[in-house]
């Protein structure tokens, strides 16, 4: 009898409240029971989780297999036990407090079979505030590039793996660590995989945040315990890559998430000797693997932490870690078109360069179009617009009509509207609203706006910085239905004015001859043509009589 196509391995520890949802999601898989097996390893649960597993095994003989063992302190041992007895062509690791989309296994296996994939990543969805990787799930990829497609940003084992590759490499999860055990396992598979594929068009894996619950895969761990594991994985990366951008892309993930993130408020409040121990453990990793390419791609908080580690500035790093990012990035300095965060030790003689504090590249023109209509000759618009980080208070917002052919521009100041509830992130923007009424009969420097298609943008100036962005891509759903036609008088005739969106969602205004004007011109042409013909005939008659 042929073995199952896929083995689903579940490490279970004190997951009683959520275990049925997890198991039901697996047993409801569209791939069918005849093509899968479920291996659930109870890692010494103290609740009724073990009994629930036995119940499911009894109800689904030949499909659900249960192993009970003493608590091992982490997910490595139960996963390894599952691997030892797995029979599937593929294995999939599922956490006991998470669950699968109904077609997850079928879609991932189909992707693997079609492309001879060794690893298939299924789209992840966060539940209950759980953060999940997203960058690699933009489109389906038959053959993903480890360096270019963000695949390495997810090192969890919640993926479909070809079991033959795991066995050929002799891979198992390290059982001497309590957390981070998945990174060396997944990284080794990545580096040895012939093909890595991505299923992005279907939510395969639902990763949950369960308030107050600590599963076999989620437990707090001291940074000192994690640093050796991080060092091991970074050495692994170096062993499989050459110096340069590709290596830096992978190292960036570890430097940000496993090294620099440790130097937070919690670390800053530890006793001095404990802070110093973590500092000394992290510094060699920065010294070995941090590059200028990586530094340029870090945000200011991370740039500062990396600089302090590299240059042995422990007291300065402590001060910076004690300063909440939202406070530092709200208290900015703008100078000569550059923006600097107000973290401690900015230009205080400590020697930390300005570049470490710089926020300029984070300043973006943000907008939202709430309404865009034409009533008669008047174009009405309202919404909000601001520069992220520095806001718009004391600045200037203008609507810009631009003819892309002639590059002619006409600018119109807006009326500011209060937006007390506008706080999309750590910054508030209480005066970012705008409304404007543009009379198209005088919009062309006192004359009717010339015929043609005009791009509509918003230009935002604040504290010496100016950015311009097209209006339209970010808009209220009902705005599209608000697009209307109007008329602009041009002497005795009228032009039509029409709002529309291009293929990218950008708003544009078209001024053209109205149907009435075109009809009047046709009538006039016929009239004068008739006059000319009549005059021509009259002239011919006169010549005949005179002859």
TrEMBL record:
InterPro entries assigned: Glyco_trans_2-like, Nucleotide-diphossugar_trans, TarS/TarP_linker
Keywords: Transferase
GO molecular function, one term: hexosyltransferase activity
Cell membrane among keywords: no
Signal peptide range in chain numbering: none
A Pfam family matched in the record: TarS_linker
Top-level taxonomy: Bacteria, Bacillati, Actinomycetota, Actinomycetes, Streptosporangiales
Residue ranges constituting the TarS/TarP linker domain according to the UniProt record: 231-321
Glycosyltransferase 2-like domain residues: 7-169
Protein name: Glycosyltransferase
Species of provenance: Bailinhaonella thermotolerans
């Amino acid at each position: 009898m042929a073995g199952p196509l896929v083995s689903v391995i579940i490490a279970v520890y004190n997951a009683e409240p959520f275990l049925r949802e997890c198991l039901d999601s697996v047993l409801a898989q569209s791939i069918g029971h005849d093509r899968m097996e479920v291996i659930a390893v109870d890692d010494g649960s103290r609740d009724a989780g073990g009994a629930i597993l036995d119940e499911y095994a009894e109800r689904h003989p030949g499909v659900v297999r249960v192993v009970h063992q003493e608590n091992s302190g982490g997910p490595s041992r139960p996963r390894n036990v599952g691997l030892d007895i797995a029979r599937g062509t593929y294995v999939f690791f599922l956490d006991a407090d998470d669950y699968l989309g109904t077609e997850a296994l079928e879609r991932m296996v189909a992707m693997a079979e079609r492309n001879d994939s060794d690893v298939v990543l299924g789209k992840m969805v966060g539940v209950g505030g759980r953060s999940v990787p997203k960058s690699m799930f933009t489109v389906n990829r038959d053959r993903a590039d480890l360096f270019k497609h963000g695949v390495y940003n997810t090192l969890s084992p919640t993926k479909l793996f070809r079991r033959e590759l795991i066995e050929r490499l002799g891979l198992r999860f390290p059982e001497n660590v309590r957390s981070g055990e998945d990174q060396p396992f997944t990284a080794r598979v990545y580096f040895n995989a012939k093909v890595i594929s991505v299923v992005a068009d279907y939510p395969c894996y639902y990763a949950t945040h369960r308030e107050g619950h600590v599963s076999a895969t989620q437990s707090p761990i001291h940074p000192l315990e994690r640093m050796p594991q991080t060092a091991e994985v970074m050495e692994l990366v170096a062993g499989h890559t050459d110096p340069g951008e590709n290596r830096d892309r992978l190292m960036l993930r570890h430097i940000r998430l496993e090294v620099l993130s440790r130097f937070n408020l919690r670390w800053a409040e530890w006793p001095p000797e404990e802070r110093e121990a973590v500092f000394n453990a992290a510094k060699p990793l920065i010294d070995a693997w941090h590059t200028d390419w990586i530094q340029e791609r870090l945000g200011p908080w991370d740039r500062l932490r990396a600089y302090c580690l590299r240059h042995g500035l422990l007291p300065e790093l402590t001060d910076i870690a004690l300063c909440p990012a939202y406070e530092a990035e709200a208290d900015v300095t703008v100078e000569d078109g550059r923006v600097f965060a107000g973290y401690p030790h900015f230009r205080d003689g400590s020697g930390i360069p300005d570049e470490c504090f710089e926020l300029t590249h984070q300043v973006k023109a943000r907008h939202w179009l709430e309404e865009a209509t034409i009533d008669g000759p008047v174009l009405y618009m309202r919404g909000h617009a601001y520069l992220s980080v520095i806001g718009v208070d004391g600045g200037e917002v203008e609507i810009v009509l631009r003819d892309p052919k002639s590059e002619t521009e006409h600018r119109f100041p807006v009326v500011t509207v209060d937006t007390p509830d506008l706080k999309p992130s750590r910054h508030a923007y209480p005066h970012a609203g705008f409304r404007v009424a543009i009379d198209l009969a005088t919009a062309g420097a006192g004359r009717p706006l010339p015929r043609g298609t005009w791009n509509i943008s918003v230009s935002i100036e604040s504290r010496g910085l100016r950015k311009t962005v097209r209006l339209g891509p970010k808009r209220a759903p009902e705005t599209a239905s608000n697009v209307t036609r109007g008329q602009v008088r041009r002497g005795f005739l009228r032009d039509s004015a029409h709002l529309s969106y291009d293929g990218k969602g950008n708003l544009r205004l078209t001024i053209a001859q109205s149907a009435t004007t075109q009809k009047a011109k046709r009538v006039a042409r016929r009239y004068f043509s008739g006059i000319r013909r009549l005059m021509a005939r009259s002239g011919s008659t006169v010549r005949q009589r005179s002859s």
